[in-house]
């Protein structure tokens, strides 16, 4: 067993977009017969037994199968979804529609809620520092004189850049301030409820951005700062993020009651609209079927890309993998 890799290199910086129809490409081909690192040398991808700082990924032969390994410390790798097939959605997956990034932050099939780990440093992780000083909530000005804390309404600290007694806030007071003061627009459609940040969600005093979730030390479940009205039954939460700034920008709650085909795109008929030129009018569809959530690309111009956090099995289908300005078409031969 070996793999053939057709390599297309876009000669200019492409700002994270790969124009699949472009003619301005350098195309080469390699055959990989053993485990090898893939090294980007100027515009050429070469295979090598040793890794260096320009390693974009690796082909690995293990237990009778062949995998592609990404090297996210250097550069992210994405697999392009084949528009011919639906792909099952998993919690924690990150997709790119054009330049726009979405993350499956919560997924529920049946009655088991799965919450994604904080892979992309979007959440705030804080320590609980009881008993150190008298804490006063900067919203309601109440002090915790008895040092007893309501577990449903803990004091949060170090969420933003505010120091000293200005750093304390009740969870419920902050949540109220975020959700009921015109900072978030709630829009309901047939299959979704969409929560868009009207303005940057940030501390009014120090202007540090606020997260959608907070984890308190030693607590497994995060505290949600966005009030999402969840309905019974299966759902997913699609979260638009910018990883560059470690920020969430909107939450889209998708339930399984409606027409069961949710279109994502730039066009006005799309239920989830992305106003970005890199998103196609009808870019991808999400659906719920056979107790699972699915996604299918709709032959979009820049593709629906799923991040490869670690490895991807190379099977009988050709895999198109995008890494910066490089596109690999990998197949078994
Ligand atoms: Zn308070
Ligand atoms: Zn602040």
UniProtKB/TrEMBL annotation:
<dbReference type="Pfam" id="PF12906">
    <property type="entry name" value="RINGv"/>
</dbReference>
<keyword id="KW-0862">Zinc</keyword>
<feature type="domain" description="RING-CH-type">
    <location>
        <begin position="129"/>
        <end position="213"/>
    </location>
</feature>
<dbReference type="InterPro" id="IPR000253">
    <property type="entry name" value="FHA_dom"/>
</dbReference>
<protein>
    <recommendedName>
        <fullName>Zinc finger protein</fullName>
    </recommendedName>
</protein>
<dbReference type="GO" id="GO:0008270">
    <property type="term" value="F:zinc ion binding"/>
</dbReference>
<dbReference type="InterPro" id="IPR011016">
    <property type="entry name" value="Znf_RING-CH"/>
</dbReference>
<keyword id="KW-0479">Metal-binding</keyword>
<dbReference type="Pfam" id="PF00498">
    <property type="entry name" value="FHA"/>
</dbReference>
<feature type="domain" description="FHA">
    <location>
        <begin position="262"/>
        <end position="305"/>
    </location>
</feature>
<keyword id="KW-0863">Zinc-finger</keyword>
